Amino acid sequence: MEKPKSVKTVRKFEEAMEFIRKRQYFYHWRPQYVEDLGEGPRAPSSMGVTQSQGADFIMKGYSVTMNKKKCTKCGTCWVVCSLGIIRETEDGYFEIDHDYCRPCGICAQECPAGAIEFRAGE
Amino acid sequence: MSNIKYMRGNQAAAEAARLSRIEFMAAYPIPPSAEIMEAVRTFIQEGKLKAGFLEADGEKSAQAACFAAAFSGCRSFNATSSQGLLFMHETLHMHSGARLPMVLVVGNRSVFSPHGMLCDHTDAVSQRDTGWVQLYCGTVQEVFDTVIQAFKISEDPKVKLPVMVCEDGYWLTHSLECTTVPTQEEVDAFLPPYQPKDYDYIAPYGPSFFTSLAMMDNWFAEYKYQELVAERNALKVIEDVDQEFGGHFGRSYGGLLDPYMVDDAEVIVIGMGSVMVTARHTVDIMRSAGKRVGIVKIRAFRPFPRKRLAEVVVGSAVKMLVVIEKTHVGALFDEVRSALYGVDNRPGILGFGAGINGRDVSPYNIIDLFEQGFKNIGNGSLPDEPQLYFIRKKDSDV
Amino acid sequence: MLKKYKEIFEIKEEWMLPVGRSCIGCGGGILTRIVLKAVGGNVLFTAGSCGTNTTGHIPIGPMCTIPVPVSQLGVPGAALAGMEVAARVKGMEDTQILGIVGDGDAADIGFGTISGLFERGHKVICIVIDNQGYSATGGQRSGTTELKAWTRSTPEGKSRPPKYMPLIMLAHDAPYVATCSVGYPEDIFKKVRKAMKRENQPAYIHCFTPCPTSWKNEPSMTVEVSRRAVTCGVWPLWEYERGTFRRNLVPKRQTPVEDYLSLQGRFKHVTEEDIGDIRDYIKELNEKIDRLVYAYSKDFKGASRAA
Description:
Chain A is α+β, with helices and mostly antiparallel strands. Helix content of chain A is 20%, strand content 13%.
């Protein structure tokens, strides 16, 4: 890609990640599992409207773990991650950044080799 | 027999609309008032309410549809908030100029930019020139009662103006409170069904035209004169309806404004909305500490109760007025100042914008505001503009 | 690395930061990430209501390394048009102008502005995140909500079929119109790359992105739902490029529509009759697309000139 004309407004990804980690902006809301509320009251909003209205259930204590032995380096998990937190390591395998992972389980569902496990518990 | 239900402000507004037997609702969802639209739609689907519903493609379309329904003779209802209210600004003027009744519930929320989401009165006060009657509520029970009263006020033949019922976004729309809900018969006894006269709506007989061009020098100013007379009448009608409501249901809210302990107060805080309920408790605290304070909760912002306010706050004891509002534009400050312009022995007026975009105004903040009032008694040069209360100077300020 | 993802994988740079405010399993997040990888860094970009999960919240900061102004709801076409003309005036002709617009914004409240944008022919890419409802305000129905779907403002199920936006933009003589789905990310990448060519602009790409919050599906099934939508025919993939109209990724065998409906909680209440109506709608839609494929093909003999 050619360099953009106005460079001062485009920050590189690494600098931005450094800035975020220094200020400790993690996904600090450790979600609590509540039963399916159906059409009942909505989850309290501390995060703005998108997640408060209509969020009937929130995942608590679910985790996503990568099993390197089964990984075939196909890259599917890297492509479908909705936040982009799966990165490639030097040896070609993929690792999940657990600081920012919000366990949704899409990578586990899509992995053709079944190398990612999505389960309740830390 | 009324029963007590535990409900949010949004649900109270929808329940009140159902008991008022609305005939038409068109709405576009916007938080915090999106739930009103969903609740009324659910009532219609369950058969508890017989009304027409239109899921509009925009707030302007929604209000224009309500305008069309109103001139076809239906009792109309709508619910919106900040950006939606600004988007339908044009149709608000159209509706009040055409002298059609309607009730619009506004969940007050702050206005772009920046993209705020919490309670703020800038959206409704910026519509003060549209000619609508504006009523501000302090509790969920008051929201419920005001919606029912609003239909009666707007359909009164001396008024015939649309009414905006303003409830604080999230503080009232999403807070659960115990609310007394009367039965359908009790509400029917207070609020009769909407019966427009022959010239108030369009039907396919007889030649007539409606809100047509009044170009050149043909009667435009005379229509506006009628509108001003209606606004003047509304001052009396709001008080009468509130008293009548009190007679039927046992609850009333003081009509145009609700003073508390102002007879011998030295400093009075004037404001609107749910923050005045907090202020009422603060007055009790300060009175027990020996300070002579009082509050005036303004209920009707439009038409502004100038005479009534002058009667209440100008007296031998009052030395300072502190006007607080949830906007940065100084709307209530300007209104109070101009209401007291020609009055003798008027007290000094200080203005603060406190609670912008949902910043909490706690009893400590209100005590501090009263103290500012006491400090400035005798100060000859009070600021001409409202100041914003409690702005952070550094990122680390709490 | 799978062959189909090789081209995407070559773009090592990430433009989306993970400090997101999107719901878990948001289809829009996957879409935005792939689109930004395809378009690269030299872009001016505005986002719509649910697309604001890619912008930022004060005081955390932006969630893209590219600055993103939030466009107001109701005027997406005007924001894109203004940015495009301003970029030309400032001499940034090779910068891409990109808009990620919600379906409520594009099809309902801001439809007039999108129509005006295409009529004036600005050189922009307009990508619509279609989560079939007003998800940012809680999940009410929009013009593009599917038939018989539960939403908060149609609790008994939507009684009318959706407004099919891509064909409306085809009638605006847009040089490039395409539909895509989050279940096939390699397809999204290819289509955005095609839309970046200047002769293909103004381009319109309408993307099927499930929203677990409003559709009540399991968040991990987002990509599976989008795939089943294509294979059962509810969301046919096609593209129109300056006179050629073709279908992409035609499934070898059409899967039953119940497989698609059973994954989503918003179709929990459907009866056999409703499923029959949905099947009729699928048949009509696919017939329409097939007729267009024929109409734009070489076999088409031309309209009859009989009086």
